[in-house]
Write a structure and sequence with these properties.
heterodimer; A: about 550 residues; mainly alpha; 4-stranded antiparallel β-sheet; 4 strands; globular; B: about 60 residues; two-stranded antiparallel ribbon; 2 helices; about 45% helix
C-alpha cells in the first residue's frame, strides 16, 4: 500500500476552522448575555447544570489533546497493551457519582466554589492547607494549558502548512479560548465544552472507523493486526513499559487523580442535582470508554500496519529503528530491550515522523491521508472535522483549566489570604486578569520553547504533566476523609499532603539535579517508577503520614 | 480493575515465544478481547449501580 502520498485538504479546513471559532465566540457572547451578577454564577453557572451539559463538559475536560493524539500514539508505539488503559474510564465514571455527588451536596449547602473551600472549612485551616490545595490546583493546571496551546499549533501546522502556521494556530486557540472564558465564565465554558465534547466523541469513533476501513474492513483489519510483532500483541509492550502492575496503578490513579483536579471538582459543584451527576457517570463510563476502545485505539493499531514501526528482516525476525546519541540504527526484536535499557529510543515510520516523540502524529497522518482516499470529497470534510475535533479537545481542556485556575488563585489566594475583604466585583476582575495573564504566560512559554535551543519548557513540561496527575492524587486521602471518614486532623492532612508531594517530587528531575544523575537515590526511584505509578507511591506515604499524625493527635487530646 | 488492566492480565497474557495462534482469541488480539470483556463487566456494574443503589439513595 502506498503511504507516501499526501492529501491537500485545500481551503476547506480554513473555512471549517473559522466557522468553528466564530461559533465558540458566539457561545461566549450568549453566556455573557445570560449571566447573573455574582461570583457563583461566573464560576459555577449558578449551580444549575443539567445532565447533558454536565456529562459533556466533564468528558471534554477529562479528554485533552493528549488523549486524541497521545493515546493512539502510545498504541502505535507500544502495541495493543496500551488499549487496556481505557479501562480507567469506567472507574472515573463511578467517581463522578460517588465522590462528585457528595462534593456537590456539601458545596451547595456551604456555598463552596473551589476544592480548598470544602477541605479547609472541614479542617479549619484558613492559610496553610488552603495554600497547599491551591498549589496542587496550580501545578495541575499550568502544564495542561501549555500543552493544549502547543497542540493547537501542531495541528495548525499539520493542517495548513506554511511558515507561521504553528504560531497562528497557537495564538488563535489561546486568544479565542481566553476571550470566551473571560466574557462568559462557567456558562460559556460548559456550553463550548458540550459542543467540543460531542465533536470529540464523534471524532474518536470516526477516526477508528477510518483506520479499519483503510485496511479493508474489520476482518481484514484484525487479520493484518495479527501479523504484527509479538511484542505489539502482548504485555508489557514494545518498550517493556506496561507491566500489569504499572498499568493497574496507572489506571487507578489516572482515574482518581484526574477526577479530583480543580476543574472537575467545580463541575461537581455546578451540577444541578444528584440525578445530573448519576446520568453523567453512566454516559461517561459507557460512552467514553467505547470511544477509546472502538475509536482512537484502533487508529494506533491500524497505524502499526499502515506505517510499521518494525519490518521483517531476511531471517523473518522483526527489526526496529532505534535512535541513540543522535544516530538511528536497526535493532532486532530480540535485542530491543537491551538497546532501550542502554538509552536508545524507538523511532516511528519515517512517513509519520523523524523523531522519537513523533509517534503522536499517527492520528493526523492516518486521517489526512486515508479518509480522503477512501471517501473522496466527503472524506476531506470528515478528515477536517476530526482534526478540528482534536483542536476541540485541546481547547476544552485549556478553557476548563484556565477557568479553574482563575477561581483557585482568586478565591483561595487573593480573597482568601491576601485581601480577605475584597468586594465580589474586584474578585471577578482579578479572576479575569488571572485568565489573561495565565494564557499569555502559557503562550509565551510555547513560543520560547520553539525559538530557543537551550531553553525548552515544553520538554520539561511533558514529564511534568504526568507529575501533575500525581500531584492532584495527593488530594485523595483528605478528600476521602472529608467526604466519608471524618477522622483526620488538620495537622495530619497538611503533613500527609506535604509528604505525598515530596515523594512525587523525588520522581521529577529535581532529585537528579540535587544528588547527581548516577546516585543510588535516583536509581531507586527509576526502579520504583517501572513498578508503580508515581501518584500511587505518593499516596501510600501520604496516607501513612496522615493516619499516623491524626491518631497521635487524637491520643494526645484525649 | 484488578482483573482487566491489573495483575489478572497475567492469566491471558501470551508468552511472546509461543505460537502465533496463542496471541489471538476469535481473530482478535487476546489482550484486546480481554479489555473488551472487562469493559462489558465494568459497564454492567456502573449501569446496575446507577439503576439500583445510587437511584434509591436519591429517592
Amino acid at each position: 500500500m502506498d503511504t507516501t502520498a499526501t492529501t491537500d485538504l485545500g481551503l476547506l479546513p480554513h473555512f471549517c476552522l473559522a466557522g468553528y471559532l466564530l461559533f465558540l465566540l458566539g457561545i461566549g457572547l450568549w453566556g455573557f448575555r445570560k449571566r447573573q451578577a455574582g461570583e457563583e454564577d461566573y464560576y459555577l453557572a449558578g449551580r444549575g447544570q443539567g445532565w447533558l451539559v454536565s456529562s459533556l463538559t466533564i468528558m471534554a475536560t477529562f479528554f485533552s489533546s493528549a488523549a486524541m493524539l497521545g493515546a493512539p500514539g502510545m498504541v502505535y508505539k507500544e502495541g495493543v497493551v496500551f488499549a487496556l488503559f481505557a479501562l480507567n474510564v469506567p472507574l472515573s465514571g463511578a467517581v463522578i457519582y460517588l465522590l462528585g455527588n457528595r462534593i456537590r451536596e456539601l458545596g451547595r449547602t456551604h456555598g463552596h466554589v473551589t476544592p480548598a473551600d470544602l477541605i479547609c472549612s472541614h479542617y479549619g485551616s484558613p492559610v496553610a492547607l488552603r495554600c497547599l490545595v491551591a498549589l496542587i490546583g496550580f501545578l495541575y493546571a499550568v502544564p495542561y494549558v501549555v500543552i493544549q496551546i502547543q497542540a493547537g499549533g501542531i495541528i495548525s501546522s499539520r493542517l495548513f502548512g506554511g511558515e507561521h502556521a504553528f504560531e497562528i494556530g497557537a495564538c488563535l486557540l489561546s486568544l479565542v479560548t481566553m476571550l470566551y472564558i473571560m466574557i462568559g465564565g462557567m456558562r460559556s465554558v460548559a456550553w463550548t465544552d458540550a459542543l467540543q465534547g460531542a465533536l470529540l466523541m464523534s471524532g474518536m469513533l470516526l477516526a477508528g472507523a477510518a483506520a479499519v476501513a483503510a485496511l479493508g474492513g474489520p476482518s481484514a483489519f484484525f487479520d493484518k493486526v495479527s501479523e504484527l510483532p509479538r511484542t505489539s500483541l502482548s504485555a508489557p509492550g514494545t518498550t517493556g513499559s506496561f507491566t500489569p502492575g504499572k498499568l493497574f496503578t496507572l489506571c487507578i490513579f489516572g482515574a482518581l487523580g484526574s477526577m479530583i483536579q480543580p476543574a472537575q471538582w467545580m463541575r461537581f459543584y455546578a451540577a444541578k442535582s444528584a440525578k445530573a451527576l448519576r446520568r453523567s457517570a453512566v454516559i461517561f463510563a459507557l460512552g467514553l470508554t467505547a470511544c477509546f476502545l472502538f475509536g482512537v485505539m484502533l487508529v494506533g493499531l491500524g497505524g502499526q500496519v499502515l506505517y510499521p514501526v518494525a519490518k521483517p528482516s531476511a531471517d523473518g525476525a522483526f527489526e526496529y529503528q532505534v535512535q541513540a546519541d543522535g544516530q538511528a540504527f536497526g535493532v532486532k526484536e530480540a535485542d530491543l530491550a537491551k538497546r532501550l535499557a542502554e538509552g536508545g529510543k524507538p523511532l516511528p515510520h519515517p512517513d509519520v515522523g523523524a523523531g522519537p516523540r513523533d509517534f503522536d502524529q499517527i492520528m493526523v497522518v492516518v486521517l489526512k491521508r486515508h479518509l480522503p482516499e477512501l471517501l473522496g470529497p466527503a472524506g476531506l470534510l470528515l478528515a477536517t472535522l476530526v482534526i478540528i475535533a482534536i483542536m476541540a479537545a485541546a481547547m476544552s481542556t485549556a478553557d476548563s483549566n484556565l477557568h479553574a485556575m482563575s477561581a483557585v488563585l482568586t478565591r483561595d489566594i487573593y480573597s482568601g489570604i491576601l485581601r480577605p475583604g475584597a468586594s465580589e466585583k474586584s474578585r471577578l476582575w482579578v479572576g479575569r486578569g488571572v485568565i489573561a495573564a495565565a494564557t499569555l504566560l502559557a503562550l509565551g512559554m510555547v513560543f520560547v520553547s520553539r525559538s530557543s535551543e537551550s531553553f525548552d519548557p515544553i520538554g520539561m513540561i511533558m514529564p511534568m504533566s504526568l507529575l501533575a496527575i500525581a500531584f492532584s492524587s495527593q488530594l485523595l486521602p483528605v478528600t476521602f476523609d472529608v467526604l466519608f471518614l471524618k477522622r483526620g486532623s488538620r495537622r495530619g492532612a497538611i503533613a500527609g499532603i506535604v509528604a505525598g508531594m515530596l515523594v512525587v517530587l523525588m520522581f521529577s528531575p529535581l532529585l537528579a539535579i540535587a544528588t547527581g544523575s548516577d546516585s543510588a537515590a535516583v536509581d531507586l526511584f527509576v526502579q520504583l517508577k517501572k513498578i508503580a505509578d508515581i501518584g500511587f507511591c505518593g499516596v501510600v506515604v501520604n496516607v501513612a503520614v496522615f493516619t499516623l499524625l491524626s491518631v497521635i493527635g487524637k491520643r494526645t487530646r484525649s | 480493575m484488578v482483573m482487566g488492566p491489573g495483575p489478572g492480565l497475567q492469566l491471558v497474557n501470551p508468552d511472546p515465544t509461543t505460537a502465533r495462534d496463542s496471541l489471538l482469541f476469535l481473530g482478535l488480539p487476546v489482550i484486546y478481547a480481554w479489555g473488551l470483556f472487562w469493559y462489558g463487566v465494568q459497564a454492567a456494574v456502573v449501569v446496575t449501580a446507577s439503576l439500583t443503589i445510587w437511584k434509591s439513595r436519591e429517592d
